[in-house]
Amino acid sequence: MIGAVLFVSVFTVSGWLYPGYSPTQMFVSELSLGPHGWVQILNFVLTGTLILVFGLGLAAHFSIGPASRAGPALIQGIGVSLMASGPFTTDPSAMFQQASIHGAVHGIFGALVFAFAPISCFVFYRRFRRDAGWRALAGWTLATGVVLAVGVVLLKISQQPGSGLFEWKGLVQRVILFAFMAWIFAVAFRLRRQYRSGEGTPPAQP
Asked: Rounded CA gap, 187 and 198, in Å?
């Protein structure tokens, strides 16, 4: 829960304060550039660490049944990718492609984050729709997966100059990040509530 709120809050506030930065036209990763770039770098590392821990918690909770392996592994992969992408700063989006080594590494881990995000939603939807304790989140999980999948396609298109979305690529990316982090928060909140209520690990549903 903290990781989701932290990540969105930091890049939103930094985008407002960063001179010459356009949240609608520039990627979140570009906040890592410049004299105050360490803030976003640290944001990547801390958020990635928290999401990795969350993934380990999901693995412990969903120990058997549908999505018990793939789901937590995907979330852990997102956490590791965020952690790894932080120290390797991106190249400016105006360059159209990652030209430097550190930019290429950042691009690889970033691509993993955006690939794993919608897949993780679809995997957990398979579990949630069968699990009485999680069925309330099934519809939201499926909708989030669809939004993320469409968003990733639009994000790819928006990186091409003259596509019509090029000037909105930052906004497209933010829609994806907001949707996914909201889903992470909702799942973490429900998991926390279950343990606080003493429900513990629910049995797998047939």
From this structure: 17
Q: What is the DSSP string of 20-60?
A: T--TTTS-GGGGGSSTTHHHHHHHHHHHHHHHHHHHHHHHH
Q: How many residues does the chain have?
A: 206
20 burial via Cβ count (<10 Å: 0-12, 13-18, 19+): exposed
Q: Quick one: CA dihedral 181, 185, 186, 188, positive or negative?
A: positive
Tell me the C-alpha distance between 200 and 137, whole Å: 18
Q: What is the DSSP string of the chain?
A: -HHHHHHHHHHHHHHHHSTT--TTTS-GGGGGSSTTHHHHHHHHHHHHHHHHHHHHHHHHHS-SSTTTTHHHHHHHHHHHHHHHHTTSPPPPGGGSS--SHHHHHHHHHHHHHHHHHHHHHHHHHHHHTT-TTTGGGHHHHHHHHHHHHHHHHHHHHHTSTTSS-GGGHHHHHHHHHHHHHHHHHHHHHHHHHHHHTT--SPPPP-
CA–CA gap between residue 31 and residue 85 (Å, rounded): 13
Task: Render pLDDT for 54-92 as a digit per residue (tens, 0 to 9).
Answer: 999 999 999 888 889 999 999 999 999 999 999 998 888
Domain 2-196, CATH class in plain words: mainly alpha
Q: pTM of this prediction? A: 0.89
